[in-house]
Design brief:
39% of the residues lie in helices and 21% in strands. The radius of gyration is 29 Å and the shape is elongated. With 509 residues, it is α+β, with helices and mostly antiparallel strands. The relative contact order is 0.10. The strands form five sheets. Strands 1-5-6-15-14-13-7-12 form an eight-stranded mixed sheet. It has a five-stranded mixed sheet with strand order 17-16-18-19-20. Strands 2-4-3 form a three-stranded antiparallel sheet, with no helix packed on it. The protein has 17 helices and 20 strands. The longest helix is centred in the first third of the chain and has 20 residues. It comes from Xanthobacter dioxanivorans. InterPro entries: aa-tRNA-synth_II, aa-tRNA-synth_II/BPL/LPL, Anticodon-bd, Anticodon-bd_dom_sf, His-tRNA-ligase, HisRS-like_core, HisRS/HisZ, HisRS_anticodon. One of its GO terms (molecular function) is histidine-tRNA ligase activity.
Length: 509
Amino acid sequence: MAKDFKPKARLPRGLADRTGAELSATRAMLEKIRAVYELYGFEALETPAFEYTDALGKFLPDLDRPNEGVFSFQDDDEQWLSLRYDLTAPLARYVAEHFDALPKPYRSYRAGTVFRNEKPGPGRFRQFMQFDADTVGAPSVAADAEICMMAADTLEAVGVPRGSYVIRVNNRKVLDGVMEAIGLGGEENFGRRLTVLRAVDKFDKFGVEGVALLLGAGRRDESGDFTKGAGLDPRQSAVVLAMLTGAGLTADADGVRVELDGDVELAAALVSNAAFLEGMAELRDIAALVAAAGYQDRVRIDPSVVRGLEYYTGPVYEAELTFEIKDEDGRPVRFGSVAGGGRYDGLVARFRGEKVPATGFSIGVSRLLAALAFLGKMDAEAELGPVVVLAMDKEPARIADYMKMVADLRANGIRAEMYLGGAGMKAQMKYADKRGAPAVIIQGSNEKLAGEVQIKDLVEGAKIAASIADNAEYRAARPAQFAVKEEDLVAAIRDVLERRAVPTLGLAD
C-alpha cells in the first residue's frame, strides 16, 4: 500500500451512525421496556453477536451458501460462524446447551444488535436492534396470551396511548390446515404456500379484492407493475378468503362450522383438518384468557396475521400502531407493525431431538423509537448535554480550580465537564452550545478574587436573547447570567437543572 494512501471516510451501505440524542432517547425507552419485562418475571440474558452457522436454524442459511442472508466467516478451525440474524436462534442454542440447569419454564429477555446480509433500502438496514422476551418450556397457550398482554403493557409504558395500537393474533396451525385442505401441503408446494401467505399478509393494504387477485393469476397496481399470483382456482381461493374474512366460518364453544357457498367437499376437508381445528381452539382459548384479564380491547384475533419466518408452529402475533402518518405523496397510511412474534416449538428440538415448547416476541427498537418521535413522546431533555466549566485561564493552578468545580458537580450527580481545548471564550461558548449544555460556569481572575463564579443558563438565555434585537442591549443585559459564591455553585446549578427538569444521577443527597 502506498505511503500516501488515505482511506475514504465512508459508511458501508445499510448501516447508520447514531449520535447522543438518539442514543439517550433509545436508552430511556429500553429502560421502560426492561421494567415491564421484569414486572412480568422475565430475567436478563445476553448472547454473543455471532454463532456457529449451523446453529442459526433451518431457515438460514443452507450449508452450500453460508453467506446467504447472514454475514459469515470461518475461524482458524475452518468452522463457519455467522453474525446473528435475530435473538431467537441464539436463545434456542443457549437453552439447549444449559437445559438441565435452567428452570422450566425459562423466562428471559434480551436486547441486542442483529445483522442481515440483504440488499439495503429506505428504512431497511443491515444492522439494527431488537428487544425480545421469550418463555421456553410452557406448552399452554396461556404463555402466548401473557406475551400478548405484556406487549400491550410495554407499548403503553413507552408512551403509545391506548387506542393507538392493537396486538393482532392468529395461528399458523389455522393457516397450515387451510393449505392442506386446498391441496397445498407438503414440501413440493412450499413456494406456492409462501405466495399465498404473502397475499394474505396484504389484506390490510389491498382488501378482499386485492387479495383475491393475488391468490389467483396476479394483481396489477396503479403504476402498471404486475405481481404474479399463487395460481389458486376459485374453489381454493374461496377457502382462503373464508378463513381471512370469517364469511361462512363459525367458531364457538360447540366447535367449528364451515359453509363455502355449497362447496361441501372443501368445507368438509377444512372442518375435519386436525391442524385447523387445533389452531381455532387455541385462538378461542387465547381470546378467553385476554378477556378475563381485561385486555380484550387491546389484543384481538386477526386471521390476516402471517409472520414470515418458517419456524413458527402455533399462535403468531403482531403489535400494530393504528394511528395514521403521511407517505411521500401526502397520502394517509398506518404506521404499522413495531413488534411481532409467535410460538416456535421446534427450534430447541433441533439441538435436543425432542420437542420443547417456546413462545416470544421481538420489538423493533428503531421503528418503535420513530413512532414515539412521531407521537411527541421522546423527552426533549434527553438532548441536553453536560454543564461546561469554561477554562478562562491556562495556568496550572487555575486549571486545578476548574477541575475541582467539575469534580464537585460530578460528586453530586451532576453531569459536567471542563473545556479541554485551546480556544478562547467565544469558541468555548460555541462548544457548549454544540454540546447542548444547559449551563456554563465562568470564573476569570476577577471572579476568583471575589470568591465567586458566573453561571450562564444557556437555555433560558436563548429564550431571552430571541426577544432582544440590539447587540448593545444584549451585551448590557447579559441574559440569564448571574453570580454566586463558590460554595453555592452546586446548589445554584441544581436550581438551573431543576428548571430544565434534567435528572441527576443520585450520587449524593
